[in-house]
Design a protein that fits this description.
The complex is a heterodimer of chains A (44) and B (361).
Chain A (H helix, E strand, L loop, with lengths): L5 E5 L8 H17 L9
Chain B lengths: L2 E5 L7 H35 L9 H14 L5 H7 L2 H12 L5 H32 L4 H12 L2 H12 L3 H28 L4 H11 L3 H11 L1 H16 L1 H14 L9 H8 L2 H14 L5 H24 L3 H5 L4 H28 L2
Helix pairs in contact in B: 1-2, 1-3, 1-15, 2-15, 4-14, 4-15, 5-6, 5-11, 5-17, 6-7, 6-8, 7-8, 7-12, 8-10, 8-17, 9-10, 9-11, 9-17, 10-11, 10-15, 12-13
Classes of the chains: A alpha+beta (44), B mainly alpha (361).
Chain lengths: 44, 361
């Protein structure tokens, strides 16, 4: 085993979209589909 | 030369596997929400057909009640939990879509008075909760978490502040439990008080947005009164949410000055990191609606998509509230939270009455 000092290096973190980011993305995707006429009428 | 040891990281589940894990819980949210909608439509009709006197209960309350009944009796099985936890995601998507129902001019017209009221509310809530925390001899960081939770935006603010001031997990659990328990109570008390005082939809919506802490509960408390009140509750609450970064930054600097939290490096980056991005989404959709990018039918469709997203949220509010779990967290933080919330509710009601006279709501 090596006697040299060990340095702890964490593997790089994965960067991803936040919950807010995904929510905004979904909302805009739905808005684009409505605008494009894919969803003509959404019942309630 | 030093040997570099790369720490093995916990491998995150594959995105596809994570997605499939959410499906059972999301279906449960949809089933509970839709059951609430069916009950709203059919119970009133059944009572009328049989000449019974029965109050008209909105789908919002039915969805919350069904959720509460499941959560506090059989509980939520593990398979549903990940999906049920997505209710905040649906809330944020619903708020962005709701932006289509506001022209930007309306947002400014309604938002500027709301912003003034929100600033007064935040200052009062922080000062009062800090005082109460000292009187009840709570730990200072727990007091900070309760102050931020009641002043700005409930659970999100507590989680954001916890990281910024290096608070204990236990303190944040106490604060979150107190805010959630009081939020659940507000769902039942706010509409009753609003009706007893004959508040207009506008005044009630602003009051709910100012006084109810968690965004999901604020939206639900507003929607329980009326559709218009729900819209205004969300707008006012969103204004409060937009200020989260400033409040968390102020507390981070305060605790770093005491040597009990890490110093804040780039303040602009800190503000951007804490800023709720769905507020920008809401404003952008509102801008698109103002520019007439959507026609009338399309705005109707977006509004209904927003309602469906909120329906999942309201089901989630009931499903994630477990009174036994909340009671385990102890009485003192709850007492401080309860006293503080009652006084904040009374204070903001006074503010709304004053604003009603000035702005002729």
């Amino acid at each position: 085993m090596s006697n040299t000092k060990q340095e702890v290096v964490a593997a790089p973190k994965r960067r991803g979209l936040s919950l807010d980011g995904w929510a905004v993305l979904l909302a805009f995707a739905l808005a684009a589909l409505v605008r494009a006429g894919v969803f003509k009428h959404v019942p309630w | 030369m030093a040997d570099a040891v790369v720490l093995p990281q916990v491998q995150p589940a594959r995105p596809v596997a994570q997605f499939f894990k959410l499906i059972p819980g999301v279906l449960l949210l949809a089933a509970v929400g839709y059951a609430g909608k069916l009950l709203e439509q059919n119970v009133g009709k059944y009572a009328k057909d049989h000449h019974w006197t029965f109050p008209n209960i909105e789908y919002v309350l039915w969805a919350i009640l069904i959720g509460l009944a499941i959560s506090n009796t059989v509980g939520i099985p593990q398979i549903f939990r990940a999906g049920v936890a997505t209710y905040e995601f649906w809330l944020k998507a619903g708020i962005v879509l709701l932006g289509s129902r506001f022209l930007l001019g309306d947002v400014l017209k309604l938002g500027v008075p709301s912003l003034a009221l929100v600033l007064i509310e935040i200052a009062f809530a922080i000062a009062f909760m800090t005082l109460l925390g000292r009187v009840f001899n709570l730990k200072p960081k727990l007091t900070t978490l309760l102050a931020v939770g009641s002043a700005v935006c409930g659970v999100s603010a507590i989680i954001a502040t916890k990281g910024a001031i290096d608070a204990d997990d236990e303190d944040s659990s106490f604060a979150i439990a107190a805010i959630l328990a009081l939020g659940a109570l507000s769902l039942f008390t706010f509409p009753l008080i609003g009706h007893a005082l004959h508040l207009t939809d506008h005044a009630y919506g602003v009051w709910s947005g100012l006084a109810v802490d968690n965004t999901a509960e604020a939206a639900a408390a507003g929607a329980l009164y009326s559709d218009a009140a729900g819209k205004l509750a969300v707008l006012t609450k969103t204004t409060r949410n937009a200020l989260i970064g400033f409040v968390v930054l102020a507390y981070a600097i305060y605790w770093a000055g005491k040597g009990q939290a890490q110093a804040v490096g780039n303040k602009a980056a800190f503000l951007w990191q804490k800023f709720p991005k769905f507020v920008l989404g809401f404003l952008l959709i509102s801008l698109l609606a103002t520019l007439a990018i959507f026609n009338k039918e399309q705005i109707g469709a977006l509004a209904n998509l927003s309602r469906w997203a909120f329906l999942l949220t309201f089901a989630g509010v009931g499903l994630r509230t477990n009174f036994r779990e909340l009671a385990k967290q102890g009485l003192r933080p709850f007492a401080v939270g309860a006293i503080g919330e009652v006084l904040i509710a009374v204070f903001t009601l006074g503010l709304v009455y004053g604003a009603q006279r000035v702005f002729h709501w």
